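# nightly structure sweep
# worker-07 picked up a monomer target from the shared queue
# config: single-sequence mode, recycle default, output format = structure tokens
# input follows
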Amino acid sequence: MLRPSRLARPLARVSGRPSAVPTASRARLSQRASTRATHDLDLNRLNNKRRDYEKNRTAFLAAGAVAGIISFVYTAWKLKKALDAQSAKEKMAVRCDAPIPTEAFKTEAGEKRKVVLHDEQGREIVPTGYSVVPAFPRTMDLDLPGGSTADQPVAASLSDSAGVEYTLVGLGMRTVTFIGIQVYLVGFYVATQDIERLQRYLVKKINPLATTLIPSEKEALRRALRDAAEGERTWDSILREAGCRTAFRIVPVRDTDFHHLRDGFVRAVQARSGRDKTYNDEAFGAAMKDFKNFFNRGQVPKKKELLLSRDARGTLAVLYGEGGHEQQAGRTLMGTISDERLSRLLWLNYLAGNRVASEGARDNIIEGIMEFVERPVGTVAAQIL
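# output follows
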């Protein structure tokens, strides 16, 4: 009776062991599956967070860029309003405190006429419309090195110890940037005794048989001078063939320096010379180098005078002075350039083309030209006298 019971105990132990093994395995497998699921869940959550972060970051950067552009435009607009308000105040002050009007031209019988006034000394002046430099002299004398004396009847009256007399054709303001910051006033002058040559060339361009132009012919000439291509061809021919002595008088309305003025001139010349391979020679390169060296100087205070003169042969002379009417003795010759191509390209920068240094100056010069061609050829110089 005792043996069977002893045998049953080992059997019971043996029979109980296999049943515990599957239970432990299932527990471990279940634990591993749970850990993997948790890990996968964590990765998905991290990916979602990273994606949300990138979206938010892109949105913030875009918003910042848009806000920056808006603030820049708004600031520029406010600055322009402030400058316009200041300019209006200055013009009002000039209108109230001085007899000089603000318009360079007036309309008489449907035609524009240059406004000519007299200062305290009786000299003729033309209003500019700007308070810093309220007027330009209608005529000025230039005594240039190597200046030739013309053989015309009025030459003796227009050339004396002070130099050759030049007559103002038109003027305007040079501005930069899209908000129109004013830099300098520029006036275009022609030697008074050479106006007849300019008259004859322009009149014959429209009507070879005429000595003066009627209103319809004047309008045709005005359209031709305002057209970019035709205007450039016209002025290029005048500068090459007419032999007129001309000058640009530049007077800054704010403090600047010679380097800034030089950079503007050089960019204008290079923009035009780059379109023509005939300028790619050593002579023109040397002329450009010499021209740049003229401006290795310091500051140019406002109201000072810079003169760019072109003689009958195209020689460029650069002078700097104190400004004003009696400035002849105070002018200093900065240098001369004999290559006429440089002065011609520099002149075209103000007179013709798709882009000019001052649209206001070009329009004003064209209106001044219209005053010349409506009179018989040869009578303008005598009338100025």
